[in-house]
Design a protein that fits this description.
alpha+beta; 3-stranded antiparallel beta sheet
Length: 190
Amino acid sequence: MKLPITIIVLLIFGWVVAPADDLPTRFSFDRYAGILEHSPFAVASAVVAPAATPNFAKDLYIANAAKSPDGDMVTIQSMTDKEFKKYLSTKGPVDGYGIANIEWSDDIGKTKVTISKDGQYATLGFNEAEMSKPSPIRPGVPQNLPPVQQPTITRPNGVPTPSPHVRGVIQRNPNPMGQQTSVPNSSAED
């Protein structure tokens, strides 16, 4: 009876102390790298955006736009640099600036121009602040014209027809600052 117990004990002991090559090895942590990269529970990291290139047209606006049989023409200006002014046409680029597209509109100030420079494109419109300003006074151009007198029309019976009332031009600022107007004395000799 001792012999079967001894054999059983030796078998159990031999089985427990098996050679190390038969035991499975532990997996490396790199096995789980793919799961960690796409895990919805991972800590969010900020994505670094590429450095933004400066917008070449951020201060530009359309000053004038015209159609011509020779080609369309556009004048662009800068809001910050008063010396910057480029006269562009559809014939070709000027100083690197070129016209890519013009969206003509019948409404004043609604025309849009797409310009390009160095592979970048920008769509420009008219400057609303410049359009709302009153036009400057130009020397040699009369500003306040007298009202036009309508001719008197006579009826066949010889009675004149009264002319329609035409209102004259109302001056915006009739008395410039610092000037006083003299009122003629109407009670003078009649």
